[in-house]
Design goal:
Strands 3-2-4-1-5-6 form a six-stranded mixed sheet. The radius of gyration is 16 Å and the shape is globular. With about 200 residues, it is an alpha/beta fold. Strand 2, helix 3 and strand 3 form a beta-alpha-beta unit.
Length: about 200
């Protein structure tokens, strides 16, 4: 069975740097994002990964390649970012001007994914991950990574709101004392690389 799941958020883009919700839009890493992603190269060599799974979005694939694992990447459609629907490209302040009480982790997005849909996607992915062996690494996105961690710990999607996940952040999900009945966050939001 899988023993640990490493999750790396893609490096910084111009949209993430300015707080724009980036789901489907393809935005490349900026120079800071490239440097932070490349900071993982060599640091991950001590771990043998049984699988390297990557979001279909180019920013996640670019991060994987810069981290030195590009030759092993396999696209995993369920690793895409939350579908923001009508809120794609908007900043939180712009959304709150339209809906003052809006909270992504409670309300989802109109004409995008609901919390139930993104939670079900995370659950589906977790079920497939648990069937793998050893340690795996995922290259994904900020909000989806937070939902994935919440659902890994069998918490509601809303619990993801309490986890910050920085661009090029590295987190590890695992099990306390190796017990599959006790899923835990082993490490959260470690950063590598330089500006």
């Amino acid at each position: 069975m899988v023993t640990r799941v490493h999750v790396i958020r893609h490096g910084e883009t111009e949209w993430s740097a300015t707080g724009r919700h980036t789901g489907r839009t393809e935005v490349p890493l900026n120079s800071r994002g490239e440097a932070r992603a490349a900071g993982w190269k060599g640091r991950l060599d001590a771990t043998t990964f049984s699988a390297v799974l990557v979001s279909p979005r180019r920013r996640a694939q670019q991060t994987c390649a810069l981290a030195g694992l590009g030759e092993r990447m396999r696209i995993e459609p369920d690793l895409v970012e939350w579908d923001y629907g009508d809120y794609e490209g908007l900043r939180s302040a712009e959304i709150h001007a339209l809906r003052p009480d809006w909270n992504l982790f409670a309300d989802g997005c109109p004409r995008g994914e609901s919390t139930a849909e993104v939670g079900a996607r995370a659950d589906r992915l977790i079920a497939r991950l648990q069937a793998l062996e050893g340690e795996v690494i995922l290259f994904s996105h900020g909000h989806f990574g937070r939902v994935l961690a919440a659902r890994w710990m069998r918490l509601p999607v809303a619990a993801g709101a309490r986890l910050e996940f920085s661009p090029a952040g590295h987190s590890i999900l695992g099990f306390e004392h190796g017990d599959p009945a006790a899923p835990v966050v082993v490490r959260w939001n470690e950063l590598a690389g330089s500006d």
